[in-house]
Amino acid sequence: MRRTRTALAAVVAAVTVAVSGCGLSTNSAVPFDVVPGSITPVPELEGLTVTVGSKDFTEQILLGYMAELALSAAGMNVVDLTNIQGSSNSRLALRTGDIDVTWEYSGTGWINYLGHTEPIPDERGQYEAVRDEDLNLNGIAWLPYSSLNNTYAFGTTRAYAEQHNLKSNSDMTEFLEQNPAEGVFCVETEFASRQDGLPGAQRTYGFPTTKVKTFGTGAIYAGIANGTCNFGEIFTTDGRIAGLNLAVLADDKKFFPQYNASVVVRDQWLKEHPRVAGVLQPIADTIDNQQMIELGKKVDVDGDDAATVAKDWMVSKGFISPDTR
What's the confidence (pLDDT) of residue 5? Predict the structure, then answer.
């Protein structure tokens, strides 16, 4: 079903008024006329308005656009509120009803929103725990689990990893015990001091460091690639991993919290529109870390438009038609 831009413009105008009191502003309509593919129109949803939000980094914006395209294919009038600054603002927008649909991470929900200090090592166990508690305490429903897991890890160049046969943090520890001068790390200031960052990882694995250099996130990836440091803190689904040909070392002792992505909505809203879950489930079932790394690379390294990258992926999976323009 094609969505008419005229009708959507009217929806956007109405929602701009609705959210202005919360300091948020709408972006625009989804910039495509979506033609359904395997995601087909759902009579119960056709003509209803849904506002989709995301946080303000590439992966979130890509996931937000994927949800928007799927809901458009199902026949909903979609309002784009991606690129909300910060987790707390995104969470507030969901709870107050300024947005209806967004993607969230199990570790963020467990630690930041529910106040726990100890993560659950198992990915599905972490997801199920936050799903159940957030529903019971806050009326927030977490839709199906996805294997997409944007957690912390240590990275190095692929050439360095292959040269020293490094595949995991335990490999790194054994290597640094034999070659302590190689223990030069680039990390963010916060990661250098957080107990769920470098200090805790060192306690868990026991690796030595000879020098710890602190940088902003982007400079860390470049620092690893150009040899400023041999190891660095990275996010496991960042597109710069592929763009700079980096290797991700496995967290084989499951130290870092799990951050599996799921769609989250208000439970009351989901009860009013239960078919939404089935529309979005194919995305959660399909997207994984390697695909997200490649998609993020197209945006952050190649400079492609995030909405177009999301659309092309949805078309490649058959979720929407190649006729989407």
Answer: 31
Give the C-alpha distances (Å, rounded to integers) separating 49 from 10, 74, 154, 160, 320: 11, 11, 42, 51, 19
**For the chain, how big is the Rg over CA atoms in Å?**
21
pLDDT digits (tens, 9 = 90+) for 148-200: 999 999 999 999 999 999 999 999 999 999 999 999 999 988 788 877 789 98
Alpha helix ranges (H) inside the chain: 5-19, 58-73, 87-96, 106-108, 123-138, 158-163, 169-178, 189-193, 198-205, 217-225, 240-243, 267-272, 275-286, 289-300, 306-316
Strands 261-266 and 140-142: antiparallel
Residue with the larger pLDDT of the pair 300 and 102: 102
Phi–psi pair at 140, nearest 5 degrees: -105, 125
Q: How do residues 29-69 score in pLDDT, each as one tens digit?
A: 788 999 999 999 999 999 999 999 999 889 999 999 999 99
Ramachandran sector of residue 193 (left: φ over 0; alpha: ψ -120 to 50; beta: rest): alpha
Q: What tokens were used for 305?
A: 């438009």
DSSP state of 142: E
CA distances from 312 to 32, 189, 193, 267 (A): 11, 37, 40, 31
SS3 278: helix
Type of residue found at 144: P
249 alpha-carbon distance from chain centroid: 19
Provide φ and ψ at 99, rounded to 5°.
-125, 155
